[in-house]
Amino acid sequence: MTERLAALDVGTNSTRLLVADVADGAVVAELTREMVITRLGKGVDRTGRFDPAALARTLEVLAGYAETCRRLGVERRRLVATSATRDAADRQLFLDGVRDLLGVEAEVLTGRAEAAAAYRGATADLEGDQATLVVDIGGGSTELILGDGGAARAMVSLDIGCVRLFERHLHSDPPAAAEVAALRADVAAHLARVAGVLDPAAAERVVGVAGTVTTVTAIALGLDTYDPRRIHRATLDASDITATAGKLAAMTVAERAALPVMAKGREDVIAAGALLLDQLVETFQIRRVIASETDILDGVLLGLADGPPAR
User: Fold this and answer.
1) Long-range pairs for 90-98 at CB < 8 Å and ≥24 separation?
2) Is the pLDDT of residue 309 over 60?
3) Is 252 helix (H, G, I), strand (E, B) or coil?
4) What angle do CA 28, 155, 236 make, to 5 degrees?
5) In what order do the strands lie in the sheet with 14-23?
């Protein structure tokens, strides 16, 4: 039996939609995949509350996604929210807005649930069962998940992401050397927690997901347009990551915005994300990273497919 399902992921930086036909636990046809940078997490690290304009922007995009779901005849839908919503004291405003627009209850994922969904989405089409470390760099948090094949066995969620780090540290344009050093020190302090949960060195391959990794990959590959087909499963050496992070940190926001692969709204936070990725690769002596265009959004959709059929 084939069902038409929709997954919606409301992150700290972006709001995304995936509509696909699913049969026997696998995607058989992808109808649409959309992303808008709405920056729901703007200021949440500092204030603990949503910025009213960011909340309104996010709900406006979700209203458009609701219409897309109706137009495509979606039978069931699932909406998840992550770091920014976990941290916001006024999250009920968002939850009520989602219920009104989509008629579903938003799931505020724990860090562990977020990590599990990211791992499933990132590894669903990977061949082999070798030990795999999935690195998911989001706007507000970063998840590291270690598993074998399609099964995650250990995971950790850290409160560092491209938006959070940008707001904390990168105040100059381009960032000053001292700001970059402070950001790296912040990341290193959080990464020190990882060893108590999992051993990155146990991984035979490392897969990186989400906008920071895919954008860094597009830049490192020298693409003249953002092409998911060329980015998905492309491999970056550690030296490529270091060079790209350095390049982005040396550019102004306007210069980054002019890059042909840069999604509108990502240009201010991408340097923070790239520096985070570079620090992580350096800390754990990772030699190469496989980029993935499939991620938590795909994992959320497959999780929905596991549930009871629509009535």
Assistant:
1) 90/49, 90/50, 91/50, 93/50, 93/55, 94/10, 94/40, 94/50, 94/55, 94/58, 94/59, 97/55, 97/59, 97/62, 98/10, 98/59, 98/62
2) no
3) coil
4) 65
5) 26-37, 14-23, 2-10, 76-81, 107-108
Helix, strand or coil, per DSSP, at residue 91: helix
Task: Label residue 302 exposed, middle or buried (CB < 10 Å: 0-12, 13-18, 19+).
Answer: buried
For 270-281, write each residue's pLDDT tens digit: 999 999 999 999
From the list 7, 12, 33, the residue with the least C-alpha distance to 228 is: 33
Give the start-end residues of each E strand in the chain: 2-10, 14-23, 26-37, 76-81, 107-108, 131-137, 142-148, 151-158, 205-209, 235-237, 288-292
Q: Is the pLDDT of residue 149 over 70?
A: no
pLDDT at 281: 97
| Separation between Cα atoms, residue 65 and residue 69, nearest integer Å | 6
Confidence of residue 311 (pLDDT cuts 50, 70, 90): very low
The secondary structure of residue 100, as a DSSP letter, is H
For tokens 């069902």, the residue is 3
pLDDT-based confidence at residue 308 (cuts at 50, 70, 90): low
Q: Mean of the per-residue pLDDT values for the chain?
A: 93
114 neighbors 11 (Cβ within 8 angstroms): no
Distance separating alpha carbons of residues 149 and 145, to the nearest angstrom: 12
| pLDDT tens-digit map of 107-138 | 999 888 888 898 999 998 888 889 999 999 99
Mean pLDDT over 52-60 rounds to 96
Residue type, position 69, single letter:
C
* 27 φ/ψ angles, rounded to the nearest 5 degrees: -75, 125
Contact predicate 92/22, CB 8 Å = no
Distance of alpha carbon 22 from alpha carbon 4, whole angstroms = 6
DSSP letter for 251, please.
Answer: S
Query: Which of helix, strand or coil describes residue 293?
Result: coil
